[in-house]
Write a structure and sequence with these properties.
about 230 residues; about 0% strand
Length: about 230
Amino acid sequence: MRSFTFLSAIALTFAGFACAAPAPINPAAIKHLVGDARGSDVNIDVRDVEAPPHPNLQDMKVPSIPIPRDIEIKSLPALLKRATIDLEPVLDDLVNLDVDELTVEVLRPITDRVTLILEVLLKGVNNLVGRPIKEVLRTADGAVMTVEQLASRVAEFLILVLRTIATLLKHTLLEEVAAILRGITTLVNDVLIAILKLVVGLDVAIVPFIGDLLDVLSSVGIKISL
């Protein structure tokens, strides 16, 4: 029988790291809980989907993702949007795990997908090096983002991924599992460093958007480069 899922753990973690015993989740509240956990204050777009029961390990099938198309995207806003769309359903798989499912066997197929998406994003960001800054910051409608607008977009992305990983780290005692999760945070940090190198002043502009996130990451021993 399930005790609680990481969907509820995220909500509890970012409501002040409450120590009360976890309660069963009302399925009708799933979208609300995910929105709160992933930083609704910066308007992360969480898909309106009903989370299905997590399958047993032997029935678990993780489809492959055709990723390489995104490497040719030629602006940061477009790269971040594509990565966010690809990551949301995969991260949903993580937050729908039960505590007793947090094992290497269950995690690895899911985290491999997260890693692949992040690696493609990193390559796409590196491909922007040397391009005019107006191209780098151009949106789909032809507008050019300000540094502050980009900071908000990058913050949304960091919150989406790192809050989920931080919550999982708080609830595992297995070093092998923790190592997998920390590998994802290292890759996210590599993406952040690459983005900061592209846009002057972004390192300062992003801080007001991720103050709470930095506190959460510090509580599980994660540091990001700013």
